[in-house]
């Protein structure tokens, strides 16, 4: 069953509660669902549609626009190597080739043991630390071919499990707005002048 | 110059620090360190005055937008229709322009500074709710900002009746999911509404008029907002004492590529020259391996390229604009004499072709065409007519004279940024910018790849 489990459903309601318009929670809920199941399923999109009050097709329309959402299972570790200009200039393309060789797959592929998915991606905001890669969206900087081999060994042996959660887990720490501290949503339908602006007038 | 393992890339120096002062501390992201180093004092100073007076400070200090366009924040805030509420603040933390690396550092290393900046903006411009949109691929930034928000709520800095005043505002952390074009402010808003991140048709030119949920909305970059706590704490005079009159304060600049020591620097705005940055000992220390400089991109992947001729220009928006390029997102990419120029252009063009949202035909089709033609040239399968074809496809995206410092080489007058364009947003023109620069400046390199191929005799009978 790929619908959200009870704990995640509570979390989903909490997230929806932060937005004046429920549909704004679509992307965060897709992440939540991908975190639970490893990828985004049809059932999940149906459920998200019910939760944010739109159609499943609209949820799919949104989900399919964004690269981070996967619609079938991928490896436990998604290895994204940057090939944009700053990395390209100092060996990013060669690093992709090396990774293809080491893992025995092409970008887009997953190793037979289900551990690694390789992707050649665009700039990930670490350009001075090129060539750069990310494993499950955690950066590695100035990666030599030897660094890469060691990284793969470490991941295989589970030595980095504490630092790098399995694919899907975006952030291990979440925002929680305590009920007694919340200012509350401001709906677009309530044309109220904020109290501190009134004071100024 | 000093570096810190927890702030990879950042290089401190003997320079004023407005936004990076806390990077020296390993625990710079905690509330404890923040409060011990002047944290939330800017907010206190702001709340002690009427909102309009805080807005005046930001106008007076001419805090220029750091997201790309360099539009003054105070002026932008004033574009909301009078008396129309609610208004929203959307923070642009989508940093993904090739070469750009600063907002992620600011979010990971000093999240409270950003939160304080958001609060000051909301107070000054009467914004009733804030959404902090962070690029999906930045897991650590999400964790740091999430934790900082939880701390700030618990301590009474965010939420209901902030610091016991009438000022109440929620800040919601929002996740992106991987799409460069979402950094364009109207696409950011669409994405925040739960939709595909497709830029909206203009006009209206500013979401300040019609933005999130159809309401007035201010979109500001992370670095822009990160400037506000210091400004409010130290005052307009102290802020404008740094930098130049048209570009006050500091700016974060990432220099990457073929320099000896690539890095992210907080520099004095408007005065530091490209030569200082590329060759200065306190910055990148020259080109790697003692090579010659061939060209550099002064302001993010979409900026027209400069050559050694422009090295003495200061990092100042108007001057760089008049020279036919832009400062954009504060990203300089350096190419030395060993660079394969057509391949470098291909890397940049492929980025924009790949990131096209597909709404506009010139961008969707034109970008792909440019990429394909460049690819075949780089693979040795190009023909001479391909070079004309590149220009033909490019000018269907950006008609007329293309702004470039070296446009005179094509017999054109250099015209300042921005381009004329046939598309909704700048992604289309950005796909052509590197091709245009590369072809204008280094046409012979393209020709060499073509000549090589046509000079190989065709063998028969395999
Ligand atoms: C294609 C495109 C991508 C952009 N990406 C970003 C981005 O990642 N971050 C950002 O702050 N601004 C980006 N911008 C600029 C924003 O549209 C907007 O001008 C900016 O966020 C406003 O903030 P500022 O006034 O504080 O600079 C982008 C613009 C375009 C056209
Ligand atoms: S220019 Fe490209 S990215 Fe921008 S709206 Fe048009 S198709 Fe989309
Ligand atoms: S170009 Fe590779 S991280 Fe920016």
Automatic annotation (TrEMBL), chain A:
Family stated for the protein in its record: Belongs to the complex I 24 kDa subunit family.
PROSITE patterns in UniProt: COMPLEX1_24K
Location of the region described as Disordered in the Swiss-Prot/TrEMBL record: 181-201
Alphabetized InterPro entries for the sequence: NuoE-like (IPR002023), NuoE_dom (IPR042128), NuoE_N (IPR041921), Thioredoxin-like_sf (IPR036249)
Protein name (Swiss-Prot/TrEMBL): Unannotated protein
One GO MF term: NADH dehydrogenase activity
Gene3D superfamilies reported for this sequence: Glutaredoxin, NADH-quinone oxidoreductase subunit E
UniProtKB/TrEMBL annotation, chain B:
PANTHER family reported in the protein's UniProt record: NADH-QUINONE OXIDOREDUCTASE SUBUNIT F (PTHR43578:SF3)
Provenance organism: freshwater metagenome
Family per similarity comment: Belongs to the complex I 51 kDa subunit family.
Protein name: Unannotated protein
Gene Ontology molecular function: 4 iron, 4 sulfur cluster binding; FMN binding; metal ion binding; NADH dehydrogenase (ubiquinone) activity
UniProt keyword terms in alphabetical order: 4Fe-4S, Iron, Iron-sulfur, Metal-binding
Keyword Iron applies: yes
InterPro entries: NADH-UbQ_OxRdtase_51kDa_CS, Nuo51_FMN-bd, Nuo51_FMN-bd_sf, Nuop51_4Fe4S-bd, Nuop51_4Fe4S-bd_sf
Domain NADH-ubiquinone oxidoreductase 51kDa subunit iron-sulphur binding: 342-387
UniProt cross-references to NCBIfam families, sorted A to Z: PRK13596.1 (NF010120)
Gene3D superfamilies listed in its UniProt record: 3.10.20.600, 6.10.250.1450, NADH-ubiquinone oxidoreductase 51kDa subunit, NADH-ubiquinone oxidoreductase 51kDa subunit, iron-sulphur binding domain
